[in-house]
Amino acid sequence: MSGQLANRVGIVTGATGGMGRVIARRLAAEGCSVVAADTSEDGVAELLAACEGLAGAAVFELCDVSSSRDVRRIVARAVKEFGRLDCAVNAAAIEFEQVPLAECDDDDFQRMMAVNSTGVFLCMKHELRAMIDARNGGSIVNIASTNSYRPQADQPAYTASKHAVLGLTKSAAIDYARHHIRVNAITPGAIDTPMLRNAVERRGRDAAEVAARLSRFRRFGNPEEIAEAALWLCSDASSFTTGHALAVDGGMLAG
Q1: What are the sequence ranges of the domains in the chain?
Q2: Which of 40, 64, 98, 222 has the fewest CB atoms within 10 Å distance of its CB?
Q3: Which CATH architecture has domain 9-248?
Q4: pTM listed for this prediction
Q5: Are 57 and 81 in contact (CB under 8 A)?
Q6: What stretch of H or E contains 64?
Q7: pLDDT tens-place string over residues 213-254
């Protein structure tokens, strides 16, 4: 797919995280000018160094996706610096639960929803407006989860937030097809990221056992496999695909 995003402009949120960092680099490698956004500057130097010399440029913006002001700012940066917005991958998310619903702290629930659900809503809202203004169509990819379909134990807020991501994705796909804007989701399974490793450690689980239980291949997926799916959905190769949730899960949802 060499050069499939040449002269395109994109946004990647959660861009210093395990999946976001690889997605941002993959898009830049295909010629996309990327505004990479995250809540922390930790890992930014590594990210920008990885993107240096690639076909597309990469710049970084601090952004809390639960803040409408922050999200407006990163979209405005993309338009001001690169001229428009063609694609976006909304990958910012958090997960820290290990209790069932009746023991879920009210503030923890609100925090999870603020980042994982409201964050996607705000990103889509401002990304869609920029794409409509450009009158050139576009593609938005939201990172959901296999929890959107098959919840794991002791993750009520995370599961609710990821169900919401699919609802937002499908609703926007219907509403904005007339503007030639495609909206899809990826539902990653057990992907080998710091978030997953931290969750395994918090629960005192054995990583090999978790991988065998959650994947037909008996291994964790890697972020590059998610990045390839994101690249396909952002590119013209998926031009007739919208409102779809693409499972990249090692067969976890197969049965």
Answers
A1: 9-248
A2: 40
A3: 3-Layer(aba) Sandwich (3.40)
A4: 0.96
A5: no
A6: none
A7: 999 999 999 999 999 999 999 999 999 999 999 999 999 999
